[in-house]
Specification:
Blueprint: H1 3-14, H2 19-38, E1 47-48, E2 60-68, E3 72-81, E4 86-94, H3 97-101, H4 105-123, H5 125-137, E5 146-152, E6 156-160, E7 163-166, H6 183-193, E8 198-204, H7 206-217, E9 226-230, E10 234-241, E11 262-266, H8 283-291, H9 301-304, H10 306-324, H11 352-359, H12 366-376, H13 383-414, E12 423-428, H14 430-434, H15 438-447, H16 453-459, E13 460-464, H17 468-483
Parallel strand pairs: 2-5, 5-8, 9-12, 12-13
Antiparallel strand pairs: 1-11, 2-3, 3-4, 6-7, 9-10, 10-11
Helix pairs in contact: 1-13, 2-13, 4-5, 4-6, 7-17, 8-10, 10-13, 11-12, 11-13, 13-15
Bound molecules: adenosine-5'-diphosphate (ADP) and magnesium ion.
């Protein structure tokens, strides 16, 4: 075996995550769930969302939704047909990197409102113009406003269905003056400044949106139990019994519907085990964390989600490059890779590279080779180099998918949900959608947890919840407008 493959194999072993570790992870997760439901300021935030029912597919109407994800800003309008189906019109733009880290909250939210404005101009211009005319004539009517669901995928202290303050930024955002502010009010102010016919009706975490959207679209009568995201970040939301959310008594909040006896909880599981009592840690995880802008937090997310897997891979490849001559010809002189390669730049590798590498089942690894050229400007990577890359990619991706099983298995266990015949789960995010066999590895790890096992796994139905944040947000805006939650305009 070549030295580079041998070393890659040795590194890959450091990413193995054994069944025993999965079980220990589940145990610790359940402990953190209980803690999070009873107290505030815990590792697992377990945030009450004030959404107390899930849709059944018969909901109807036209709604707006916006989604500030982490990589993109999406604006859409959703027409719910009331028969599990919907039509959706959307626009999507990349958030400029400068906007994430410099400037003020006001600048960011005005930027977002301007995107809503141009969306309305393109797709709902008649409605927009009519509203402007009435506004000038002083005859604007409340019922002409679009109800908008605002998907905001960062940790928020939610105080009501359309009220919540930002706890901290994640995923590379850092705009200090937004922290502690009500993000719905910030968006509404920006919208009003531009005179848009829009009311921010609901604050939606993308995970909750994913759960709601899946519940609307999923076949049959069974409401969805859990929504999970594996995209730029990772997080999950699930349906909890109100009487188990004992910290509700201590939380300042506006009124909500208690009749269902349930509420969706946003777990914020990206920060599971920040104290690293059970999470696996390699030297690459340590380095990634140390060089990140939020060391010591979102430790689960840093091992699982799209924003970080590419960087873990980069650190491993850089190590192999230095120690074993990866991407160097045998003589060691004439390097195959230019200095401008993103191998040398922090965050230089996109996680989509892992999916391409993992997917290549051919013997000569031609796709790996061309992906290395496209992504890293590596000319003529040798077959051994390609094999070494694939070995570490596989290890990093598989560990992420097995780790993803921990919060899901733990939530199924802590809620006693596996007593039921069918448990529906909605998932969203490029990683779970595109990384080959992500769900397969996840399920394999789940079956290794005795309380789930083969029998439990069979009851679990997992479906991609496409457009989760759009449709889900619309559904929550619908619930909110029905409940009569009116924002201050
Ligand atoms: P968001 O998190 O903004 O809602 P996505 O769900 O599309 O958006 O996730 C984007 C993340 O997924 C990025 O970190 C990106 O690197 C990663 N990603 C994009 N394409 C793929 C792919 N084909 N396979 C794996 N990861 C991907
Ligand atoms: Mg998303």
């Amino acid at each position: 075996m070549s030295a580079v493959i041998e070393e890659a194999t040795r590194i890959a072993r450091q990413f193995e995550y054994s069944p025993e570790e999965v079980q220990r992870g589940v145990k610790e997760y359940i402990r953190e769930v209980e803690e999070g439901l009873s107290e505030e300021g815990t590792t697992l935030s377990q945030i009450p969302t004030f959404v107390t029912s899930v849709p059944n597919g018969t909901e109807k109407g036209l709604y707006l939704a916006v989604d500030l994800g982490g990589t993109n800003f999406r604006v859409c309008s959703i027409d719910l047909h009331g028969n599990h189906t919907f039509s959706l019109t959307q626009s999507k733009i990349m958030i400029p990197r400068e906007m994430m880290t410099s400037g003020s909250a006001k600048e960011l939210f005005l930027f977002l409102a301007r995107q809503i404005e141009s969306f309305l101009r393109i797709h709902h211009n008649e409605h927009f113009e009519a509203h402007l005319k009435r506004k000038i004539a002083g005859t604007a009517r409340e019922e002409d406003l679009f109800d908008l669901g605002f998907t905001f995928s960062f940790p928020v202290r939610q105080l009501g269905i359309n009220k919540g303050t930002l706890i901290r930024w994640t995923k590379g955002f850092d705009i200090p003056d937004a922290v502690g502010q009500d993000v719905c009010a910030l968006l509404q102010e920006a919208i009003d400044e531009l005179n848009l016919p829009v009311r921010v009706a609901a604050l939606v975490n993308d995970t909750v949106g994913t759960l709601m959207a899946r519940s609307y679209t999923s076949p049959g009568e069974t409401g969805t139990f859990l929504g999970a995201i594996f995209g730029t970040g990772t997080n999950g939301a699930y349906v909890e019994k109100l009487n188990k959310i004992t910290k509700m008594a201590k939380i300042e909040h506006s009124d909500y519907d208690k009749s269902t006896g349930e509420m969706i909880i946003n777990a914020e599981w990206g920060s599971f085990d920040n104290h690293l009592s059970v999470l696996p840690t390699t030297e690459y995880d340590r380095q990634l964390d140390a060089d990140s802008n939020n060391p010591g937090i979102q430790m689960f997310e840093k091992r699982v989600s799209g924003m970080f897997l590419g960087e873990i891979l980069r650190l491993v490849l850089l190590d192999l490059h230095k120690s074993q001559g990866l991407f160097k010809p045998a003589s060691g002189s004439d390097v195959f890779i230019p200095e401008s390669s993103s191998l040398y730049r922090q965050w230089g590798i996109d996680t989509s590279l892992l999916s391409i590498v993992e997917a290549d089942k051919s013997k000569d690894l031609e796709q790996v080779k061309s992906a290395l050229k496209d992504h890293l400007k590596v000319e003529r990577a040798s077959e051994n180099d390609c094999k070494a890359v694939q070995t570490v990619v596989h290890a990093i991706g598989k560990r992420a998918a097995r780790l993803a099983a921990v919060p899901i298995a733990a939530t199924l266990i802590s809620t006693g949900k596996l007593k039921e015949e069918l448990v529906d789960i909605g998932v969203d995010g490029s990683l779970v959608e595109f990384y080959p066999n992500f769900e397969g590895y996840l399920r394999e790890a789940m079956r290794e947890v005795p309380e789930v096992g083969e029998a439990g796994d069979k009851k679990v139905r997992i479906g991609i919840s496409k457009d989760g944040s759009g449709v889900g947000a619309a559904l929550i805006a619908l619930v909110a407008s029905k409940e009569g939650a009116k924002p201050q305009l």
